[in-house]
Amino acid sequence: MVNLEIDRVSVRFALGGATVEAVNDVSLRIRPGECVALVGESGCGKTVLASALLGFLPGNAETTGSARLGELDLLAATDQELARTVRGRQIGLVPQSPASHLTPVRTARSQLEEAARVLGGDAESAARRAGLLPEHLDRYPHELSGGMAQRVANALALVGDPWLLIADEPTTGLDRDLVDGLLDEFRRLADDGHAVLLITHDLAAAHRIADRIAVMYAGRIVEVGPAHEVLDAARHPYARGLANALPERDFLPIPGQPPLLTDLPDGCAFAPRCAQATALCEERPVLTDDPHAVACHVPC
Ligand SMILES: Nc1ncnc2c1ncn2[C@@H]1O[C@H](COP(=O)(O)OP(=O)(O)O)[C@@H](O)[C@H]1O
Ligand code: SF4
Ligand SMILES: [Mg+2]
Known about the structure:
- By secondary structure, the chain is an alpha/beta fold.
- The chain contains ten helices and eleven strands.
- The chain is globular.
- It starts with a strand and ends in a 6-residue tail after the last strand.
- Residues 46-47, 96, 168-169 line the site of magnesium ion (MG).
- InterPro entries: AAA+_ATPase, ABC_Ni/Peptide_Import, ABC_transporter-like_ATP-bd, Oligopep_ABC_C, P-loop_NTPase.
- It is a peripheral membrane protein.
- The complex is composed of two ATP-binding proteins (NikD and NikE), two transmembrane proteins (NikB and NikC) and a solute-binding protein (NikA).
């Protein structure tokens, strides 16, 4: 069975005279049948990581590490290899802001049928799985509500029957009802033997469907483990702060701002916001190697 094995991936951007350390030493394994949520505040590197996996990074990016999909290292593969064997076929991407990725002058049906032709899939069944009705398919992108555009994007990502679906902030801007329906669709996909990487800053969404949650801060995974453990017994102070800020828990959000990715401290990047920081934290904590892993010198 194929897994995705992300191993020590870092992504840097050259920006003017500065270097943006957007993704730092990230390792994560995703297996068929599971839904993994990658959560963290805006700007922590989630989209950059997804873009790296699919070869969508701009020219000013430098990537290290590996991301193995069977025999293929996605980070070393050529654009042609990714287009021929990975994008849409093994990994489907639901991009952030899907409406802006649809072609404005063509109906949803024509875009879906073309994708089905290229990828060898079935447009109707992908539309059905994404919760679209035939009448939705005859609309142009500007005639689709945010929820419907999201479903068209999901159908496009599913049409080639990829084993892994990466959904980047799929719930942004949707009503709670639509959010729950969409998340349940993702859960069903995982239960059918696909894998889902749900990228979100919405911990409630992760709570609803994820088997495992990886918490990212300033480009690093600071905690990863079974979803219920990360939510109910977070060990990293940042992850605990996120979990406490869930609507039903009603604690205050974590005060302060994340650091600039052009100027990361040598030690723990969370230290300026951390009530538990000690002198130890001037040294960078390393993610432990266990099923509920944490990168913190003084875990909760
Ligand atoms: N092409 C780029 N050049 C320079 N910096 C970039 C580029 N793309 C993204 N970044 C920076 O990388 C960081 C992570 O961005 P992103 O992955 O989009 O965050 P998010 O977790 O919100 O998805 C941000 O600081 C962003 O400004
Ligand atoms: S390593 Fe130190 S500063 Fe960082 S989260 Fe843990 S206790 Fe806080
Ligand atoms: Mg993003």
